[in-house]
Design goal:
Layout: E1 2-10, E2 16-22, E3 25-30, E4 38-43, E5 49-52, E6 54-59, H1 72-75, E7 81-87, H2 95-102, E8 108-114, H3 134-143, E9 148-155, H4 157-160, H5 166-176, E10 183-187, H6 194-198, E11 206-208, H7 227-234, E12 238-240, H8 250-258, H9 272-276, H10 283-289, H11 297-304, H12 306-312, E13 328-341, E14 347-361, E15 364-367, H13 369-374
Parallel strand pairs: 1-4, 6-7, 7-8, 8-9, 9-10, 10-11, 11-12
Antiparallel strand pairs: 1-2, 2-3, 5-13, 13-14, 14-15
C-alpha cells in the first residue's frame, strides 16, 4: 500500500509514467499495475506534466526583513516550488529567528547565511568589516546543519562601500573553514570590478545575477564573454540567473546564450514587491522567459531540479527517481501569446507559459491557486 499514486503523468520528455510515493520518498517511476493501491490516487490522464520538485535557489523570504521580505509559502508551494533558498536575508543576528519561522512552512526552506551579521538590515551590510565575524558564522553554520547550506556575499558598490573585494576574500576563508560550503556571490555595479571578483572564485562557487544589464556584466562592450568569466567557468564556477527587480536583461541573456553561455540554475530573486508588481511574479514566470531566448523545456526544468540540487548539495532532491524525496511539481505548459518584461524595461513576446498546478512535498499534494481555479484534478 502506497501513500500516493500519481497516474499517467506527462514527463518532460513527453512520455507517460505512474509515480508511487511511500514514507515521503519516491518508490516507483514507471508503469504500475491497475490494481496497485494507495491511500490517495491522482490521475493526470496525460494532460498535465510532472517533474521533480522545482527548487528556487535565490529568494528573499525572511518575513521580518525591513528591505526584502516575503512569506516562504507564497514564493514556495503556492507557486509550485517545493524548495526555496533564502539568499542572504539573514546573518548571524537573525538566523535563529528565521529558522524558527520556517518550521511551520509547507515549503522546504534553506538559507545562504549572509557573511555580515546584520544580513539585509540595510543595503550596505558589507561596508563595515567589523560586521563579519568568522567565529559567529561558524557557530551559526554548525548550529543549523541542513538549514544553513551555504554563505552569501553581495559584491557591488552600494553594498561594500570602500572595502572592494575584502569581504569576498573573507568569505572564501569562511568557506574553506566550513566544509567548503557553497558560496553565492551577487554581482552588480562596480567597484569592485567583475574581473577582480571572478578571479577569486573557485569550483562550485555561484555567480548570481549572471545576465544583469549593468556595465559590470559578464559580457564586454563588444558582446564577447569577459576573459575572467571564461577562466572562472573553466574552473567550475556556476552561473545563476537571480532575476530580481534590477538584475536580468533579455539582451544580455540572448547574447550570452548565443555564445553558449547557459545558466546552471534559474532562480527568481523574488520578494513581495517584485512578486506582486513584477517583473518577477514567480519562478514559473522567470522560467518561461527562457523559452524566448532559446532554451528547451528539458533545459529549463533541469535548471530548477537536477542542476539546482547539485549546486546546493541537496543530494536527496532534484531527480524523479526511486529513493529521492517525494518533492514533485505538477504543471501545465500553455501555448499562446505571452508578454514578458525584464528588469531593463524591455518586453518580449513569447508563446509558452509554465503554469504550476500543484506542489507535492514529502508526498503531500498542495494545489496552487491556478490548480484550484482550473479544477483539473481531484484527490
Amino acid at each position: 500500500m502506497y501513500d500516493l499514486i500519481i497516474r499517467r503523468a506527462r514527463l518532460v520528455d513527453d512520455t507517460l509514467a505512474d509515480v508511487a510515493i511511500a514514507a515521503g520518498k519516491i518508490a516507483v517511476v514507471g508503469q504500475l499495475a491497475a490494481d496497485a493501491c494507495a491511500h490517495k490516487q491522482l490521475d493526470l490522464a496525460g494532460n498535465y506534466r510532472l517533474s521533480a520538485g522545482w527548487i528556487d535557489s535565490h529568494v528573499h523570504c525572511y518575513p521580518s526583513s525591513p528591505i526584502y521580505h516575503d512569506d516562504p509559502d507564497l514564493v514556495g508551494v503556492s507557486s509550485g516550488v517545493t524548495s526555496v533558498v533564502d539568499a542572504g536575508s539573514t546573518g548571524t543576528d537573525d538566523i535563529d529567528e528565521f529558522y524558527a519561522l520556517t518550521r511551520s512552512a509547507k515549503t522546504n526552506v534553506f538559507a545562504f547565511l549572509n557573511i555580515s551579521r546584520i544580513g539585509l538590515l540595510r543595503q550596505n551590510e558589507l561596508a563595515d568589516m567589523a560586521d563579519i565575524n568568522k567565529q559567529q558564522v561558524k557557530q551559526a553554520i554548525d548550529g543549523k546543519p541542513g538549514f544553513v547550506i551555504g554563505i552569501k556575499a553581495r559584491m557591488s558598490s552600494s553594498v561594500v562601500g570602500q572595502n572592494g573585494t575584502k569581504p569576498l576574500v573573507l568569505a572564501k576563508e569562511i568557506q574553506q573553514e566550513n566544509q567548503q560550503l557553497p558560496l553565492m556571490v551577487h554581482i552588480g555595479n562596480n567597484p569592485p570590478d567583475l574581473d577582480e571578483i571572478a578571479d577569486l572564485l573557485t569550483q562550485g562557487d555561484i555567480i548570481t545575477h549572471c545576465y544583469n544589464g549593468k556595465p559590470n556584466r559578464i559580457l564586454t562592450p563588444a558582446g564577447t564573454l569577459r576573459e575572467s568569466i571564461q577562466r572562472a567557468l573553466k574552473r567550475g564556477v556556476l552561473l545563476d540567473v537571480g532575476h530580481g527587480s534590477a538584475s536580468f536583461s533579455f539582451e544580455v541573456a540572448r547574447q550570452a546564450i548565443a555564445l553558449g553561455i547557459f545558466p546552471h540554475t534559474i532562480s527568481s530573486d523574488i520578494y513581495c514587491r517584485n512578486r506582486l508588481a513584477g517583473p518577477v511574479h514567480s519562478l514559473a514566470t522567470v522560467m518561461s522567459k527562457f523559452f524566448t531566448v532559446g532554451l528547451s523545456l528539458a533545459q529549463v526544468i533541469g535548471c530548477v531540479t537536477e542542476n539546482a540540487a547539485a549546486a546546493l548539495r541537496l543530494t536527496s532532491k532534484g531527480q524523479l527517481k526511486p529513493g529521492f524525496d517525494a518533492d514533485l511539481t505538477i504543471f501545465d505548459l500553455r501555448q499562446g501569446p505571452q508578454l514578458f518584461a525584464d528588469a531593463e524595461g524591455e518586453s518580449v513576446n513569447g508563446e509558452q507559459l509554465l503554469v504550476p498546478l500543484a506542489a507535492v512535498v514529502a508526498g503531500e499534494v498542495l494545489l496552487t491557486e491556478q490548480g484550484k481555479a482550473a479544477h483539473v484534478f481531484t484527490l
